[in-house]
Amino acid sequence: MSLAIEAAEPATRTREGMLERLSPVLLISPVIVTTLVFVYVFIVLTVLISLSTWSPVNLAGGFASPLMKNYSALFSNGRFQADLRNTVVFTSIFLFGSVGLGLALALLVDRQIRGRGIFRAIFLFPYALSFIVTGVAWRWLFNPESGVNVLFDALGINTLLSHVGVGPLKPAWLTDPTVWPPLNEKLAAIFPSAAALQFDIGVPLALIGVAIAASWQLSGFAMATFLAGLATIPDHIREAAKIDNASGWTYFRKITWPMLAPFTVVNLVILGHVSLKIFDLVFAMSGPGPGFATDVPGIFVFEMTFRALRYGLGAAGSVVMLLMVAIVIIPYLIRNARENH
Amino acid sequence: MTTVETFQPAASDGKIGLFLQKVAIYTALIVLSAFYLMPVYMMVVNGMKSATEVSISTMWQLPQSIGLGGFREAWSRLSSSFQNSLVITVSATVLSCLVGSLTGYILSLWRFKGANLISILIIFGMFIPYQSIIVPLVFFTQKVGLYGTIPGLILVHVIYGQSINALIFGNYYRSVPRSLIEAARVDGAGVWKVYWKIILPLSPPAFVVAAIFQFTNIWNDFLFGVTIVPNPQSQPVTVALNNLAGNFSVDWNVVMAGAVIAALPTAILYVALGRYFVRGLVSGSVKA
Amino acid sequence: MTWELNRRSLLKTGAALAGAAAVGAAAGRAAMAAGKLEIFSWWTSGGEAAALKALTDSYAAKFPGTELINAAVAGGGGTNAQSVLQARLAGGNPPDSWQGNSGTAFFDQYVGPGFVDDITSLYKSEGWEDKVPPAVLDLIRKDGKYYAVHVGAHRCNEVWYNKKLLQKHDIDIGETLSWDQFFAAAEKLKNAGVNALSLGDNGIWANARIFENTFTGLLGYEQTQKLWTGELSFDSPELKEAMKLHLKVLEFVNSDHSALSWDQAVGKVIDGSSAFNMHGDWAYGEFRKANAKDGEDFGWVSHPGTDDIFIIVTDCFTSPKGAPNPQEAINWLKTVGSADTQLAFSLNKGSVSPRLDVDKTKLPPYLQWSYDKFAKNKFVGSSVNGEQVPAAFVQAHFDALTTFVVNKNVDRFAAALAEAQQAISNG
Question: Global pTM?
Answer without folding.
Answer: 0.85
